[in-house]
Amino acid sequence: MSAGSGDENENLRSDLKKLECHFTWGLTAKDADLNFLEVKFRDVVSLPEDSLPQEINLQGRTYNHLAYVKHLQGCNQEALGYLDKAVEENADNAKSCIVTYGNLAWVHHLMGDDREAETYLRRLEEINESFPTPPPAALHREVFGEKAWSLLKFSKNHYEEAKECFYEALQREPDDKEWNTGYAFSLFRWDGWRIMSGEQIPLSTSRSVKQLERALELDPDNGVIMVYLARVFQNNGKKLVAWNHMRKALEVSPNNLSVVLKVGKFLRNMHSYDMALDVLNKMLKIAPDSARLHHEIANNYRWKAIIGKGHLRNPELIRRSISHKEEEVRLNPSYFYPQLELAMRYAEVQEVDRAERMFQEMFARPDLKPADRQALHRMYGDFQKYHMGSMRTAVTHYMEGMKLQNISTDWKACHKRLLKITESPESPMRFEIEEFLSSFQRNSFYD
């Protein structure tokens, strides 16, 4: 370890802030679900090459993503391990190491090893001297691409900035596959966020459709572009067109985890559970340790077991769902929501004591994020209402969920459940709930 004088430290810090890397791109922990990002990025680095999306230097960039996530989680030693792997991935391309060396300089500095941080700064100087940035670009293509993809993948708060990055690159190279694909994906994500917020985006005015079609024209075997196009058509009621795109994506990318997961979800939404399970279980042989894959399989088994208005018809399928949900939790113990779902699945097969223990263990956690605690109140309310027959306890938890304010979709779910209870004139808690909801309205807590 080393520590210089105050002026030296200030100069080093100034140099670090000038670097182009994850530490200087404005990516903050509050903007993202770090546990979910870790799961997604771990999937990428653990899969064979033919199971990955077609993206330049995907493995190396993903190790950088993982390293930064681990840093934000307070695990700088693990971050260094991932950065070393990123260097290995790019051993033959110095320009692809620029972001990695910047990240390494930052992590070593934050760990108190300024001498090692300065070593990486010198390496960056050598690369920049050997490979000057070609005008009119301000950054090397490798750096610009990694920045744009990082912004897009990190959180919805950076979709607009990612879109601007890809658009800027397209002005210089309008026929480039990577820039066209990145711009298409950023438009798709941006439109998706607007749709989730209640906007209607007709196909005739959708910029993402036109750009996705352009990207597919340049890269006709890219299955991920196809599934994104399918989702746009699905959202606009064009189910047959959507399915044709999904089917083609599966033909060209049968072992691509991103494609398979999206096809599986599409088929589940179409209630084609057997087809979805066939696709997903084939992928499971290639990616047995993918928590996301186990999650989607579990969901399909559960929905296949349900008939009518939420009534179970096949407990054996629920037990299969439980088996995959348990595996998902095992593979990703730090991700909270699957644990809630697992507790509810236990309740559905009458293992209510086991479910209750899980819920109480979750309530006892001191470090729950507000959104996770809100989901916990909503789920526990459902557990009490539907499996324990305690309406009063359920109402108490729906109210507690609402008190945490409108910070997630579970707030509206709690609100909707309370409203539903008041619709029954015989409900003994009707007036109490109405007064509670009125107090929120008086205090302007509604959207």
Low-confidence stretches: none
Which structural class matches the secondary elements?
Answer: mainly alpha
Roughly how many Å apart are the termini?
52 Å
Q: What is the topology, as strand order, of the major beta sheet?
A: 1-2
Q: How many beta-strand segments?
A: 2
Which strand-content bin applies to the residues?
Answer: under 5%
The pLDDT mean sits at 92
Name of the CATH class of the domain at 1-138: Mainly Alpha
SSE string: HHHHHHHHHHHHHHHEEHHHHHHH
C-alpha-based Rg, rounded: 25 Å
CATH topology of the domain at 1-138: Serine Threonine Protein Phosphatase 5, Tetratricopeptide repeat
Number of helices: 22
Helix content: 55-70%
Name of the CATH homologous superfamily of the domain at 1-138: Tetratricopeptide repeat domain
- CATH architecture group name of the domain at 1-138: Alpha Horseshoe
What form results from the Cα inertia axes? globular
Largest sheet: 2 strands, antiparallel
GO biological process, one term: defense response to virus
Keywords: Repeat, TPR repeat
TPR repeats: 257-290
InterPro entries: TPR-like_helical_dom_sf, TPR_rpt
